[in-house]
Amino acid sequence: MDRENTWALALLLRRPMWMRREFKNPSDEAARTVHSARRAYLLNRWIEHYRRANRLEPLEDRGGAHGQLSMVQRAGFRNAHVPYRMSLSGILYAEK
Description:
By secondary structure, the chain is an alpha+beta fold. The protein is built from four helices and two strands; from the N terminus they run ααααββ. It folds into two domains: 1-56; 58-96, no CATH class.
């Protein structure tokens, strides 16, 4: 496994730990109003989604692989850009 994939895997494995803490003892006042059993249920659903359906795909082209940004441009979208980016999360905006 190359260095970049090792780093991504480390982040992937660490992130559910942060979410577990946040669901069990929320830092947000509104989240604290949700019953603990409901938060436990939502946490389990989130972890299931994260491990099975969540895919980390690059926004930018890398090597010979096309990123999401160029894919939407090739699909006919215009004004495609990334207005927000932080670590592994971001928002891809494009107009059809």
